[in-house]
Amino acid sequence: MKRCPLLIDTNLLVLFIVGTAAKEYIAKHKKLTAFTVEDYDILVRIVSDASEVLV
Q1: pTM given for the model
Q2: Which tens digit of pLDDT belongs to each residue from 12-46?
């Protein structure tokens, strides 16, 4: 499968940064109430398959 660039918005960027720091912070962060640790895990898989990440 060809790797493609990935464009993510700031909400997903915040999820990625906070989850990378510590997954337990996701539930505590006021801007991430719509997301779960499972969402973070899915995002990490998608980002790892991208050729580059654009914000």
Answers
A1: 0.91
A2: 999 999 999 999 999 999 999 999 999 999 999 99
The 10 Å Cβ neighbour count of residue 36 is 14
- Cα–Cα distance, 37 to 33 (Å, whole number): 11
| Spatial contact of 5 and 29, defined as CB atoms under 8 Å apart | no
Instruction: Output the DSSP codes for 1-55.
Output: ----EEE--HHHHHHHHHHHH-GGGTTT-GGGTT--HHHHHHHHHHHHH-SEEE-
Instruction: Enter the tokens of residue 54.
Output: 């654009």
Which residues pair with residue 20 across a beta bridge? none
